[in-house]
Amino acid sequence: MEKYIDVVSTFGCDVFNDSVMQARLPKKVYHELKRTISEGKELSLEIADVVAHEMKEWAIEKGATHYSHWFQPLTGVTAEKHDAFISTPMENGRILMTFSGKELIKGEPDASSFPSGGLRATFEARGYTTWDCTSPAFVRHDAAGATLCIPTAFCSYTGEALDQKTPLLRSMEAVNEQSLRLIRLFGNKTSRRVTPSVGAEQEYFLIDKDMYDHRKDLVYTGRTLFGAMPPKGQEMDDHYLGTIRQRVSAYMKEVNEECWRVGVTAKTQHNEVAPAQHELAPIHMPANIAADHNQIIMRILKKVASRHNMRCLLHEKPFAGLNGSGKHNNWSLTTDDGINLLEPGITPHENMQFLLILTCILKAVDIHADLLRESAADVGNDLRLGGNEAPPAIVSVFLGEQLGDVLEQLVSTGTATYSKEGQRLDTGVRTLPDFMKDATDRNRTSPFAFTGNKFEFRMVGSKDSISACNVVLNTITAEAFREACDRLEGAKDFELAVHDLIKEYASSHQRIVFNGNGYAPEWLEEAKRRGLPVLPSMVDAIPAITTEKAVRLYESFRVFTRAELESRAEIKYDIYAKAINIEAKAMIDITTKQIIPAVVKYTSVLASSINEVRKAGPMDVSVQMDLLEKTSLLLRETNDEMKKLEKLVGEVREHSEGQDRALFCRRELFPAMEALRKPVDALEMLVDKEMWPMPSYGDLIFEV
Ligand code: ADP
Ligand code: MG
After folding, report:
1. What are 470-526's pLDDT values in tens digits?
2. Separation of 291 CA from ligand 2 center, angstroms?
3. DSSP characters for 190-255?
């Protein structure tokens, strides 16, 4: 019998959520904690002690033996240290299960082994994790048993952020404060908090584990470094939204169940464009919870894949020639009383608050396009952005027909007097109901698209944290709101001032709006003409975070200090150089130990065949001769290119750590890797499949 999931009782059953707190905490404690969560009030140790005790009792009922401060350092993955609840044994030798308020609020992992970009000398190893009580604790079940996971921020002894969450929380504060200022000007007296809402769509690949194990490139680097295109790729468009195969359906069912248990709102699932590619999208949440949930989703995707003898690939470009994977970060601003500030209403041209917010965001994105681009900079993403499958590496905004038209009216005549309406969609089939079309069609090629009541930032890499782009979105929006409020608060005639401001912003920042095809080569030229930043690779993008403009922005909202920004730039250069180095070394390793031996073997098979056949009589051996010649030439080329790559890898250390080394890797190592790949992929097309040392693309993507 199929086991069906009771979704309503499963959802959130492993989360220390509001209903659990309400049921278990004394009233006074519950209200204190709620105030801390909703208003950011400080939590007293006394209250924390009670919360910790109840949290522990609840977790133990769920089977938990350990608790863990769970955090997101700058390594790109999450980190955790597990502590058992056990106390020092009593005199009678027995132990108690304990968990104090102090242990809940603060942890002290040794910070010296995490990247700090020079922020903290290694001998000052102290780092602190502090409880983010706005993101609920949960119990995770896995091979380690059950663990109480406490979402935390990670800072150095001197309070510098060493993680993704701290700046995100700071930026949420910034945009909250400035949004409240702005909506107060428009007469809103009731909303108490404005929160960025985020829903991140997650793309991933699933491949068979046994195949994966035979691909050392996937094992070492997460992507294939070699691989000829199979006869069939994604050209038939038959995978996108296609019927989900049973093996994958069974996987998705378990992924959903695990997500729901820990309160992750897994909602949409489907096949994506490339064979073996899929997507999962949750319902949107406050930005920090969405960021935590996205980490949880990635972990669940990987864990459940193992159970099904599969591997989940989260790399941005696992296969050359096929679409890569990304994350679409849907972002809006929502008040605590349920108002979406990005909701245009039916007549956007009359909605002055919306138009001001919209033009502020245009201004923010125009001024800080480089920061937004940088937030998606990632070694793997360099292979995806601009590859006619993902947005180009140039930031622009898509507004769509209706809003684009309103903006046009504002710029050309100074006022907008009408909004294009959605029309009735006529399918031409009488039995199908007519319905109202959206006033705006979709544009899949834009990196930052307005999609009805939210913006969709589509550049994020599939394995990256969504924190970085939300830090940028929140902070640059806060800055634009602040500047608008500064001017409007002193205005004599408010309505006139708002009107003038909207017109001014719309005119001065119109260049960031692009409703055309972002994949077209002409767009690159046009973007350059408009003066928009064109930053093709990660190493080109990193300098954006340490410009005076960026430092001023972030310091004024206390999101980052100059030192924090500089350290992050260092870490990123370092990550870039290391990742490329690993890829280059993996290529050399695979070429030496697998490719060359296999090809040598194949050439001797050909050679002996030629000799044998000749011995047998005056027969035609031209096919074998031809193959042998082609193979030998490519083998020679492979060896030459590998030698060049080896030499360059040897030179990496001559370049000083940081930007220098990263640039060397980008400019020298990366092209040399591509040069080595070429003859190897050509060899794969020639050599006997039985003798080729690893599964082909065809095996990998069509076997699940
Ligand atoms: P599509 O693929 O058409 O963009 P999906 O349904 O796959 O749409 O994903 C849409 C995502 O946008 C979901 O994660 C959803 O929760 C999120 N979303 C919807 N409304 C908002 C909003 N107001 N703010 C932020 N995210 C939102
Ligand atoms: Mg989608």
Report:
1. 999 999 999 999 999 999 999 999 999 999 999 999 999 999 999 999 999 999 999
2. 17
3. S---EEEEEEEEEEEEEEEHHHHHT-HHHHHHSS-S--PPPS--STT--STTPPPPHHHHHHHHHH
Domain ranges in the chain are 7-163, 171-426+435-560, 576-701
**How many C-beta atoms lie closer than 10 Å to residue 413's C-beta?**
10
How many A from CA of 284 to the centre of ligand 1?
A: 7
- CB-based burial label for 51 (10 Å; 0-12, 13-18, 19+): buried
* DSSP track, 627-692: HHHHHHHHHHHHHHHHHHHHHHHHHGGGSPTTHHHHHHIIIIIHHHHHHHHHHHHHHHHHS-GGGS
- Give the domain 576-701 fold: Four Helix Bundle (Hemerythrin (Met), subunit A) (1.20.120)
pTM for the whole structure: 0.95
DSSP code per residue over 226-237: --PPPS--STT-
Cα dist from 86 to 100, 106, 526, 689, whole Å: 12, 18, 64, 57
Report the separation in Å between the CA atom of 541 and the middle of ligand 2, taken as the mean of its atom positions: 26
The tokens 């209250």 sit on which residue?
A: 47
Q: Please name which ligand lies nearest the alpha carbon of 281.
A: 1
What are the beta bridge partners of residue 202? 280, 327
Q: Residues lining ligand 1, CB < 6 A? A: 197-199, 201, 268, 281-284, 328, 330-332, 340, 453-454
For ligand 1, atom 16, the nearest C-alpha belongs to 283
Distance of CA 201 from the midpoint of ligand 1 (Å): 7
Ligand 1: residue whose CA is nearest its atom 2: 201
Ligand 2 centroid to residue 186 C-alpha, Å: 34
CA-closest residue to ligand 1 atom 11: 199
Q: Which of 3.20.20.70, 3.10.20.70, 3.90.1150.10, 3.30.830.10 is the CATH number of 7-163?
A: 3.10.20.70
Q: Say how many C-beta atoms besides its own lie within 10 A of residue 243's C-beta.
A: 10
Q: Which residues hold their Cβ within 5 A of ligand 2, which is an ion?
A: 201
Task: From the options 3.30.540.10, 3.50.30.10, 3.30.990.10, 3.30.590.10, give the CATH code of 171-426+435-560.
Answer: 3.30.590.10
For residue 362, give Cα distances in angstroms to 55, 146, 288, 349: 44, 46, 24, 16
Which ligand 1 atom is the nearest neighbour of the CA of 281?
14
- N-to-C CA span, the chain: 24
pLDDT averaged per 10 residues in sequence order, the chain, 704 residues = 82 97 96 87 90 97 96 90 93 94 90 76 72 95 94 90 95 98 96 97 97 97 95 80 90 97 96 93 98 98 97 97 95 97 86 95 98 97 90 94 87 81 60 59 85 96 98 98 96 94 95 93 95 97 98 98 95 97 98 98 96 93 95 98 98 96 98 98 96 96 80
Residue whose tokens read 């044994």: 89
